[in-house]
Amino acid sequence: MATGGESTGSRAGEVPDGVRAGVAIHGAGNCPVVAASTAHDGPITGVNWTHAGDTHTEEFRARDPDAVDRAEDVPAAASVVDLGDERVYRYDRPRDEGCACRVIEELDCPIADARAEDGVLLLTLHLPDLERLRDIVSALDGIADRVEVRYLVHGAADDDAVPDRTLVDRGRLTDRQCEVLRTAYRLGYFERPRDANASAVAAALDIAPSTFAEHLAAAQRKLLEETLAGA
Description:
Largest sheet: 5 strands, antiparallel
Keywords: Transcription, Transcription regulation
Strand content: 25-35%
Number of strands: 9
Distance between the termini: 27 Å
Domain HTH bat-type: 173-225
Pfam families: DmsR_N (PF24277), HTH_10 (PF04967)
Helix content: 25-40%
Strand order of the largest sheet: 6-7-1-8-9
Low-confidence stretches: 1-8
Mean pLDDT: 81
Order of helices and strands: EHEEHEEHEEHEEHHH
Protein name: Helix-turn-helix domain-containing protein
Structural class: alpha+beta
Radius of gyration: 21 Å
Organism: Halorubrum yunnanense
């Protein structure tokens, strides 16, 4: 936090050197939206909230209304509006000192985007430097089971060029998906023209071509989610 009238932000005309971070919070068991995501097929998105007195009002979007009703440990959520392919819900609960999002906000860090999937809270943060990210991870140490930085994009400009350096979390891939990617890469499947087609790679893995295609598509989707999440 700035002191003595100084600002941590860049001056007008200067290029900021902050970061955009994707953070996955595992084990945030007191978060109703996270609890609802365990029964929901796909992510729960559009998570936002407001505080009034001691009441915390939260809103989210879900594609499967039945999953919201089935979820345990979730306050009764009122359906606000039906958008066709998804529905907006809202619920109230007492303000919780152990809320991961509140802990982050108390560090003067707005949350750019929040969603939940498979029991994991996924947040996008815009931070002035890596030190602030370390502060957030440290503050969440007693709130969550584990905090994972899934991607990190540094913004820096050199004349007209803007390097975009992104960390990709390979831990999201299963061992089989990693094996499929390594074998396909080694055999030249990704070369143009290809040194090996799908049948050749599948034969090397001793699996059917359709199985190879499924593993490859799943791995590529995860890697693209990691890479494009910060774009």
